[in-house]
């Protein structure tokens, strides 16, 4: 009887051997298929070969091993995070790096017995390179062609189409609602910020703060308002990037210093003392009127030293204006300018890539014809990375695609079909409309079959009627108009000249637009027309408004 019991016990030990995921295995020496599957899929994100942005990186891991007490996330061969088993099948964690390289992740499941089971390694790549792309800049460019690890669009939601396919999105809480005439009221502002926060994607790891809040034509938020709105942003539990100030040289004491460090500020005409708020990194805009790499690097260093935080450059570019003479004309069509701008891009990216406290940077590309729909910088076309209409990349777009890529990363293979080719405008002679002279003849002509000529009915776009055009705040104005049937976009043209010489234009799909960065105390002329692709309607009647001094 004793021997029988012993045999039964041995058999039960073999049958009841439990795998590390709770699945019973009939053979203690053969690893279950479930464990093999866990080893393959222990790291859920980043996916194999993925290009991700530098800084804090979201890692999702499989924590479904039944008899595990904890999990170690091993990053580049070193234990980076320890997670307690909590009964969930998946858990999130973070790792940090600004090293542009191939990186590895694996998970160690630490069992109750003290044994450790290791997953397979997951390889992914890190880059700092990104781009700023507003919705009016292109509907055709494919960002993955430039090997970008991230992008943003001044909005809380991504495009989720072919534009951003495969490129990570960073949401922004821009500021106030420009379409709200009562947007200056605190309750409206905070309600709008809360509404935007609700739109932020759940899987975003960073969130960008307000856009140039010190400017009346941009977010236009006081420090006190901004701090209160920041409380709503922090509720999301994301890594935060500070508001970005417009000043390009790193001197941010007027707005950002009290926002982050506290101090005395003006609030509704009263001087009050405030404390600073926390953020994970500081954003900077660096538009310069010279192709000076040192100016950009010095600004980045100054901001880092002042606030002791990692730095993001969320807008980086060169602005040129023909109004200041040939020296500041960086037009795409001007011989040699594209090459000079390309040399600047190459050098500044190389230096930023080497700076460990710089987490990310985003180039701001003007359109090829830089008398464009963005702002008044009418000689910045050599900064173009792509043609807004076709989405094809310029020479500098090809260059940007080649920069900042980790060794071993499989970059997008660009071809001649991706390249933009500039064509000089040609003057065409209008076709003749004269009726050919027909000679009379008495010769009998055999009737022939007449082939009907297909005609296309001309597309007629109705005339726009402007409802109002008035200055709203210093150096800005709002124009509204009535909807024209069948029109998807409108072109707004404005100028200081009633004949619209040296005019500027903007496009929008809405029935209103805010014109910013205007000259103070000046009379402006404005008109609007509907456009559908290459078809354009007639201009509206001209309206005028005067900006405040």
Automatic annotation (TrEMBL):
Gene3D superfamilies the UniProt entry points to: Glycosidases (3.20.20.80), Immunoglobulins (2.60.40.10)
Keyword tags: Hydrolase, Signal
Fibronectin type-III domain segment(s): 460-549
InterPro entries linked to this entry: ASL1, Asl1_glyco_hydro_catalytic, FN3_dom, FN3_sf, GH, Ig-like_fold
GO MF, any single term: hydrolase activity
Species assigned in the record: Eubacterium album
Leader sequence residues: 1-28
One Pfam family this sequence matches: Glyco_hydro_cc
SUPFAM superfamilies listed in its UniProt record: (Trans)glycosidases, Fibronectin type III
UniProt-recorded name of the protein: Glycosyl hydrolase
């Amino acid at each position: 009887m004793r021997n029988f019991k012993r045999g039964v016990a041995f058999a039960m030990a073999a049958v009841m051997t439990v795998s590390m995921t709770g699945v019973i295995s009939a053979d203690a020496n053969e690893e279950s298929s479930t464990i093999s599957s866990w080893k393959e899929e222990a790291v859920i994100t980043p996916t194999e070969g993925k290009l991700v942005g530098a800084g804090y990186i979201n890692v999702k891991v499989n924590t479904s091993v039944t008899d595990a007490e904890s999990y170690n996330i091993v990053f580049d061969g070193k234990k980076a995070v320890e997670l307690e088993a909590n009964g969930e099948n998946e858990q999130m964690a973070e790792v940090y790096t600004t090293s542009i390289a191939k990186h590895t992740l694996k998970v160690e499941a630490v069992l109750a017995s003290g044994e450790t089971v290791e997953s397979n390694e997951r390889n992914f790549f890190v880059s700092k390179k990104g781009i700023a792309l507003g919705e009016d800049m292109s509907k055709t460019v494919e960002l993955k062609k430039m090997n970008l690890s991230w992008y943003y669009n001044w909005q809380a939601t991504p495009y989720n189409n072919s534009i951003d396919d495969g490129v990570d999105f960073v949401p922004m809480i821009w500021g106030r609602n420009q379409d709200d005439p009562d947007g200056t009221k605190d309750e409206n502002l905070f309600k709008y910020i809360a509404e935007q926060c609700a739109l932020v994607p759940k899987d975003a790891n960073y969130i960008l703060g307000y856009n140039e809040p010190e400017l009346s034509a941009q977010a236009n938020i006081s420090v006190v308002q901004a701090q209160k709105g920041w409380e709503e942003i922090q509720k999301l539990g994301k890594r935060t990037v500070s508001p970005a100030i417009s000043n390009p040289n790193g001197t941010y004491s007027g707005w950002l210093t009290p926002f982050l460090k506290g101090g005395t500020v003006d609030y509704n005409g009263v001087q009050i003392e405030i404390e600073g708020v926390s953020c994970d990194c500081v954003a900077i805009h660096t538009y310069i009127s010279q192709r000076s790499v040192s100016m950009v690097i010095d600004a980045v260093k100054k901001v880092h030293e002042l606030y002791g935080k990692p730095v993001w450059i969320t807008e980086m570019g060169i602005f040129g204006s023909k109004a200041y003479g040939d020296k500041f004309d960086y037009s795409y069509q001007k011989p040699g300018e594209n090459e000079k701008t390309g040399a600047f891009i190459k050098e500044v990216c190389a230096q930023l890539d080497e700076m460990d406290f710089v987490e990310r940077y985003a180039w701001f590309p003007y359109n090829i014809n830089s008398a464009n729909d963005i702002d008044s910088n009418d000689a910045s076309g050599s900064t173009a990375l792509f043609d807004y209409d076709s989405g094809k990349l310029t020479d500098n777009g090809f260059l940007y695609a080649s920069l900042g890529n980790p060794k071993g990363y499989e970059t997008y293979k660009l071809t001649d079909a991706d390249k933009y080719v500039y064509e000089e405008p040609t003057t065409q002679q209008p076709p003749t409309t004269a009726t050919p002279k027909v000679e009379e003849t008495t010769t009998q002509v055999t009737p022939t079959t007449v082939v009907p000529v297909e005609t296309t009915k001309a597309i007629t776009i109705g005339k726009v009627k402007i409802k109002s055009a008035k200055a709203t705040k210093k150096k800005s104005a709002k124009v509204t108009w009535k909807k024209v049937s069948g029109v998807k976009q409108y072109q707004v043209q404005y100028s200081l000249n009633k004949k619209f010489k040296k005019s500027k234009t903007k496009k929008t799909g809405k029935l209103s637009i805010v014109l910013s960065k205007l000259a103070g105390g000046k009379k402006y002329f404005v008109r609007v027309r509907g456009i559908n692709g290459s078809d354009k309607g007639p201009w509206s009647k001209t309206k005028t408004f005067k900006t405040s001094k």
